[in-house]
Amino acid sequence: MKIRNLVINAVVAALYVAITSAFAFMSFGAIQFRVAEMLNHLAVFNKKYIIGIVGGVFISNLLFSTMVVYDIVFGVAHSLLSLLIMSGITRKITNDWVKMSVNTIVFTIGSALIAWELYLALQLPFWFSYLTVAIGEFVVMGIGMPIMMCIDKKIHFSKRIEG
Question: Whole-angstrom Cα distance, residue 89 to residue 74?
């Protein structure tokens, strides 16, 4: 990996951690709106952002979660699997809005992993947790779509990272 890509991914991870820190009160638990999840849309512009996103999830869960081990395992798995699935599904799609829509749906469906975590760790009802976490994921990523598109017009995410 080139140094530039490493630095950019470090910045992405730092942004994810900073946003999660600012909104930690609503980023964990059965009802969660993790605002930093909108950064998942960076992978739509270039899959090389996956490293920074997953790194940000790992560090955020390490620093702010009350269920550190569970959140590291399930949270990182949710992010990594969802991003890889989205990358595979959208490989031949060129429209960023369509890619972001697919990304939002994949993450929303993948919220089942977080519901399973909450069931195992806290004995919360699986279906209730799935519903509430999925709604939070869908809302944050849905709102994140126009925000990320607007930022992309100024920053050009796909050109920032090499390759």
Answer: 22
The residue segments making up the domain with residue 148 are: 3-160
Dump pLDDT digits (tens) for 123-139: 999 999 999 999 999 99
Please identify which residue in the block is written with the tokens 């930093």.
36
Evaluate whether 109 touches 141 at the Cβ level (below 8 Å): no
Question: How many domains does the chain contain in total?
Answer: 1
CATH number, residue 48: 1.10.1760
CA 31 to chain centroid, in Å, comes to 16
b/e per residue 90-109 (b: at least 16 CB within 10 A): beeeeebeebbbbbbbbbbe
Beta carbons of 30 and 132 less than 8 angstroms apart: yes
CB atoms within 10 A of CB 40: 30
Question: What pLDDT, in 10s, does the model give residues 138-153?
Answer: 999 999 999 999 999 9
pTM across the whole model:
0.95
